[in-house]
Amino acid sequence: MITVHLPGSLTDQFHADPVVSLPAQTLSDVLVWLDGTWPGMASWLVEPDGCFRENLSVFISGRRLPPRAHVSTPVGDVAEVWILRAISGG
């Protein structure tokens, strides 16, 4: 089981739980589950090319993925996935 932490703006928009546990081997599996539970959520998270939107930061078990990581990224057997709004400034 994978534990997924979702950003507050996403949970508010979709009336979703902020933390969910689900079976998954890749981030694509995570997105399929999320979109099946809250239709439209996947398109909020991922571009049509299968890469996460540039305004998001994705972490798997504490490791930040590169910007615009692809959904084919494996999550491992027991992982914690955090999807956060990227913060920028200057």
What is the strand and helix layout of this fold?
Elements: E1 2-5, H1 8-14, E2 19-22, H2 27-37, H3 41-45, E3 56-60, E4 63-64, E5 80-85
Parallel strand pairs: 1-5
Antiparallel strand pairs: 1-2, 3-4, 3-5
Quick structural gist:
With 90 residues, this protein is an alpha+beta fold. The protein has helices at 8-14, 27-37, 41-45, and strands at 2-5, 19-22, 56-60, 63-64, 80-85. It is 26% helix and 23% strand.
CATH fold-level assignment: Ubiquitin-like (UB roll)
CATH superfamily: Beta-grasp domain
Counting helices, strands and paired strands, the structural category is: alpha+beta
Largest sheet descriptor: 5 strands, mixed
β content, as a range?
Answer: 15-25%
Task: Identify the overall geometry.
Answer: globular
What Rg do the Cα atoms give? 12 Å
Structure description:
By secondary structure, the chain is of the alpha+beta class. The protein has a single domain (2-85), classed as Beta-grasp domain (Ubiquitin-like (UB roll), Roll). It is 26% helix and 23% strand. The chain is built from three helices and five strands, in the order βαβααβββ. It has helices at residues 8-14, 27-37, 41-45, and strands at 2-5, 19-22, 56-60, 63-64, 80-85. It has a five-stranded mixed beta sheet with strand order 2-1-5-3-4, with no helix packed on it. The mean pLDDT is 91.
Keywords:
90 residues, alpha+beta, Ubiquitin-like (UB roll), five-stranded mixed beta sheet, 3 helices, 5 strands, 26% helix, 23% strand, globular
